[in-house]
Amino acid sequence: MAPAVVALILSWCLVARSRAQHLPRPFLSLRPSHGVALGDNVTLRCHLPRPAAWVLFYQDEHSRSYRSKSKKQDTAEFSFGDTMREHAGTYRCQYEVSGQQSEMSDPVELVVTGE
């Protein structure tokens, strides 16, 4: 096979692969959005641009929780009550569709105040 044909085929495969792997970035929100005190209830909500059954939540770049549903969804929540100091940090989420992971959401900072 001519080198030009091989290069063309490889280029096409790389373009097709990059398009197949690109999933839009989700949006992460925090409730309450400001003023989280020790003992408060907190909910992180990951808003998905595409329905997904698998959603991952990260705290300070480490996986904190997987959420899976038998049914695809366009939002997923991770909550904790009785907020403690160790809950403070930077949170992100991402989702998975057909074995492909999305980009991570922009970070959301949880600041815990109080004694």
From TrEMBL:
Keywords: Disulfide bond, Immunoglobulin domain, Signal. The keyword Transmembrane does not apply. The lineage of its organism: Eukaryota, Metazoa, Chordata, Craniata, Vertebrata. GO terms for biological process: immune response-regulating signaling pathway. The keyword Nucleus does not apply. This is LIRA2 protein. Residues 1-20 form the signal peptide. InterPro entries: Ig-like_dom, Ig-like_dom_sf, Ig-like_fold, Ig-like_Receptors_ImmuneReg, Ig_sub. Residues 24-105 form the Ig-like domain. The gene is Lilra2.
